Amino acid sequence: MSRQYTIPPCSGMAIEAMQGERITVIDTDGGQVADFFAEALDHAEEFLSAGVTIDCNESLRLNVGSIIYSNLYNPMFRVVSDDVGEHDLLHPCCRPEMYEFFYHNGQGHRNCLDNINACLNRSRAIIHPVNLFMHTKIDPNGSITVLPPLSKPGDKIVLQAEMNVRLGIAACSVAESSCNSGSCTPIKVIIDSVK
Ligand SMILES: [Zn+2]
Predict the structure, then answer these.
(1) Residue 21 DSSP one-character state
(2) Which of 178, 181, 177, 157 is nearest to 169 (CA)?
(3) Whole-number CA gyration radius for the chain
(4) How many domains in the chain?
(5) Range of the domain at 16
(6) Which residues contact 83 (CB under 8 A, 6 or more apart)?
(7) How far apart are CA 11 and CA 13, in angstroms?
(8) Where are the alpha helices (DSSP H) in 87-158?
(9) pLDDT band at 1 (very low <50, low <70, confident <90, very high)
(10) φ/ψ bin of 98: left (φ > 0), alpha (ψ from -120 to 50), beta (otherwise)
(11) Chain-wide mean pLDDT for the chain?
(12) Which of 181, 167, 133, 102 is nearest to 27 (CA)?
């Protein structure tokens, strides 16, 4: 059985996945970031933590075989395969204040924080997702540069759920920088039972 979802540009969607199921996130048009967040299905106080993921993997990168951890240091996902190899664990979800800070256009701007909070019916003050396909270059001096994603149309990453989760995934709303290659496009998600 396979469930397929299309997240429209600048939108979010909640999707449930059970332990052992495979989650394929597809950049349908290429060059688009997916803000990937999740909470444990029956206890939302346990949720995806990019910081804990950096800590446990001792790496700023996600590789095939890497684990994505919860705030309670439990495995939530394992990277099964990856067409792209560049994802971001550093940036919080975009939000009106971010658009205001950089572009002075925050009022009423679509944004991943509100889109993920809305689809999960939460009001988290900040969300640090895994920014799938986001290409952040880290210089040896510590400065960072956001470059266009390396993902081409149809490129995908496959994750296996290591616990029952409710995903909150947003097709990122930034059109002002290279983050999404200058325009916002959809993200497709497929959930497969392996057995
Ligand atoms: Zn965003």
Answers:
(1) -
(2) 157
(3) 15
(4) 1
(5) 2-192
(6) 151, 152, 155, 156, 157
(7) 7
(8) 96-103, 112-120
(9) confident
(10) alpha
(11) 97
(12) 133
Instruction: Give 33 Cα–ligand 1 centroid separation in angstroms.
Output: 8
Task: Determine the distance separating the centroid of ligand 1 and the alpha carbon of 161, expressed in angstroms.
Answer: 23
Give the Cα-Cα-Cα angle 186, 190, 191 (nearest 5 degrees). Answer: 145
Query: What is the distance between the alpha carbons of residues 39 and 165, in angstroms, rounded to a whole number?
Result: 6
User: CA–CA separation, 50 vs 29, rounded Å?
Assistant: 26
- The alpha carbon of 131 and the centre of ligand 1 are apart by a number of angstroms equal to 9
Measured in angstroms, how far is the CA atom of residue 195 from the centroid of ligand 1?
34
Give residue 92 CA to ligand 1 midpoint distance, Å: 8
Which pair of structure tokens corresponds to residue 126?
């900040």
pLDDT in tens, 182-194: 999 999 999 999 7
d(CA 67, CA 101): 33
Q: 10 Å Cβ neighbour count for 87?
A: 27
Measure 173 CA to ligand 1 centroid, in angstroms: 5
Q: How far is residue 75 from each of residues 17, 47, 57, 163, measured CA to CA in Å?
A: 14, 11, 11, 7
